[in-house]
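hey so i finaly got around to running the thing on Histidine kinase from Blautia liquoris. pasting the sequence first so u can double check i didnt mess up the copy paste, my clipboard has been acting weird all day
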Amino acid sequence: MKKNTITIKTRTSLTLQALLILIMLILSQYFILYKQISATAYEKEKRSFEIYANQIERSLTLICHSVNNDLAKLVEGDRFKDIIADDDITNADYNYLRGEIMKTIAFNSYNSFVEINVYSKDKCLYPRNGKDILNVLGDKIEKVENLNGNTAWLNYDSQRDVLVLAKKVLLSNKDYRPGGYIIAYVNVDIMDFIKNDFASMKGAKVVLSNEYGDIAVKQSEMSETELEGGITFHKKLTNLGFNISYRIPKEVLYEGVRDVQKVMLQGILLISFLFLITSYLISYYIAHPFKDLIKVMKASKGHLKINDKHYVNYEADQFNQYYNEVVLKNQTLINDIYERDIQVLKSQLKMLQTQINPHFLYNTLESVYLSLEARKEKESAEVVFSLSQLFKYTLKADDIVFLKDEVELLTKYLQIEKYRFGDKLIWNIFVEKGTESVKIPKLLIQPIVENAVKHGVEPSNTSTEIRVSISAYEKTLLINVYDSGNGMQSDELQKLIDHQKSKEQDNGTTSLGLKNVYDRLHNYYGSGASMEINSENKKYTEVTILISNYDDIKTRGDEQ
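ok and heres what it spat out for the 3d tokens, dont ask me to read them lol
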């Protein structure tokens, strides 16, 4: 009997919608303002980098010009040019080169030369026994050649902690013909100005590089992990052949933005808190009834239960009444279908058993077996014995059997079929050690093997192999039945798969065999079991059963 209750309309839900719109407006304004402030910080950092980069470019230009002049002074003497143009060098020439090199190392613009080597076109003139120019420069010699006498800054030598420079010598006294090369090794301290210029930019990593790698690096106080997500600025110093790369962590770049962000967040939290209380009171009348329904549904675990509460919210109360009516109808319908399906499954299992059930036939076969034994007809006697044992197995009341019992049944069944077909049937059963004690439904595998004999061996004109493989991994059981018979065409296979998964029942042998196995699998194991059929026309058919958590076998179908 319906109780008299007070109900109201859900117009108050408009208040909640207004709250959501307000929050969306606040958040949108927050992100727009935050984006503008972040963009301003980015542009400020970019301008600072441009200023420092221009300063570095001026310093590099001065250094490169000075180093180039120092090396030009070294080679400007006529005697030096004559020596470098001729591969034959005397001790006097060698001492002259040595003296000129020592003066250049001792007196140069930045006091940075560590070592200078002199090469003719073909060999090293100073020091003696030096490496060939190609072994020293490799493919970098092309860059040296293209600079036409200007000094080329090549790379940083990490083993010697020096910078490697090279210069092609042009003989001014011989129409500026190429005469040889100068290789100079410069102290890396010449690039310390990079660290000094960027010292105020804490947290940033600055790299001066060229096409051959890093020349100088100003390391960051931050870790490489923090730098990975940072912001990077680049500038190419075209005239000098260098690149400047500047990376700064986002935490450092947007450090000033955080203070503004905190104030904005505090304001948003305050406004949100005020509306939270109001929103809660409004939403309670709307959401509470439906939360009750959700709890009832979850607690039912698939078996819907009636919710006997009444609610102030008019629409929610009406919805609850309709829900209760649907639950009552569904419970009646589910009980009817469940009872019918149980009876159908039981009748299918009984049908399998009653196909070979007559007790008198078992006793008769025992008598025939004894008679054949007496007449020493061993082969026929073994077949009759296997047949009698097969009948005896099907007469057992137990519906759950050990896997080893099912394998013994398969062995006897295949021995019988071997007697029928002779060399036309080749069979093999593999059972992984340790699986014999696993419990499975009786007559789970035999119908599949029988189907392989009927559709694979019987119509074939050649020898057909049947392989049964049973293995387990952890708590998953794998049963595979393969036959090398005629197989099926793709459309036939699809029809068989569709019929297997359907609820349709028929009296055909396929339904009685594979579909019965499929239905029994899901009755005993639920979603923990699956059966897959693969086949290729004129080649093979393969049925695979996969049972996870095979110990979790249900017996409620037999207890009904």
